[in-house]
Amino acid sequence: MSNVFLSYARADLAPVLAIEQGLRAAGVSVWRDQDKLYGGQMWPKALGEAIAAQDYLLLCCSKG
Length: 64
Hints:
By secondary structure, this protein is α/β, with parallel strands linked by helices. The protein has helices at 13-25, 33-36, 43-53; strands at residues 3-7, 29-31, 56-59. β1, α1 and β2 form a beta-alpha-beta unit. It is globular, with a radius of gyration of 12 Å.
């Protein structure tokens, strides 16, 4: 099973959730901030560790 880190802007959450759903349906493990980060964590460190631990980084960007 592949592991994917989803990187996105909060304004793009709706389409990113659809992408996440499709990935999970295909058996891919997805790391997304709202599911994995919590208050009090050192976010830069936690994000760096999470990115390093995944197989892929999927950068979702849109016209700004």
